[in-house]
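Narrative of activities, Objective 1.

The group set out to show that a structural description can be obtained from nothing but a protein's sequence at a throughput compatible with the screening campaign. Below is one input-output pair from the validation batch, recorded exactly as produced.
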Amino acid sequence: MIIFLHGADTFRSRRLLHEMKNKFIREVDPESNSLNVLDGQTITLKELSEKINTGSLFVKKRLIIIENIFQNKKDKLFAELAEYLKKFSRSEDNVIIFWDENLNSKEKSLKTEAKKLFSFLSKQKFVQEFKALTNSQLLAFIKKEANNLQKDINAPAASLLINLTNGDLWLIAKEIRKLSFYTKNKIISLEEVKEMVAGFLNENIFALTDALSAKNKNLATKLLEEQYVAGLSDEYLITMLIRQFKILLQIREALDKKINPLDLAGRLKLHPFVAKKGALQARNFSSETLKSYLNRLIHLDFLNKTGSADVKTELTLLISGL
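Output recorded for this entry:
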């Protein structure tokens, strides 16, 4: 069985992937002996074949999760993989889940060989594309997240939260959880969002990326340490940094196309505060430098989610390499 999860909304696709993984562990393989999470950016067909064929003596079924296969640099792999996977389309012994971000769109077009694999995966029985939520869908999502924590949230508070997070579901979910634990009231108010989210959410990360753009290693290291002292988690920091560098890359590419800085917020659908601050920072980077930082952070995010990284050390190394 082959399952294909992809789309711009990585929060909901990640959540479903996590649920599938936990269900497999709970119902099939409590020891996780037949579960493998593979980095698609570096995987080879030989390595994948070995993982599939290395079964457990106690568990017949296997679960193989392959993340970001379309970021693999070996073009030849895509056509080979599409052919190799045909025998697993109806197999019940092996469940292979492909997870990726936004694919084959105007923002991220695929090369010819990669399109062959994308076409094959898209024709499988279990395929789900997670598109970015509309504003009304975001409001419904926020309300549901609050309800799951036995809270409610009024419309003005939810709208402000969307603006402050630029609609990023990873950040929204974390802020809803924080607000739900903070408030003693049944309904999360606009004032509480202003107090707990505004400024804090943006300024700390802006300060850190400011230090990075200025190549001020000492200040960047100090600011990173302050985030940990404040109790922020590895996942939160990575998410915030990835979000910020994605915004900076969008802005840098827009500036390279001679788009008026005053039009950035509308063109890129960013909060005016985020666009203004981001434009100042983006001028200190080239597009290639931003892509390099972003790729390192995305890879670190993968390693963190698979439990194979010391995030604080890796972020410190990133800073020291400025």
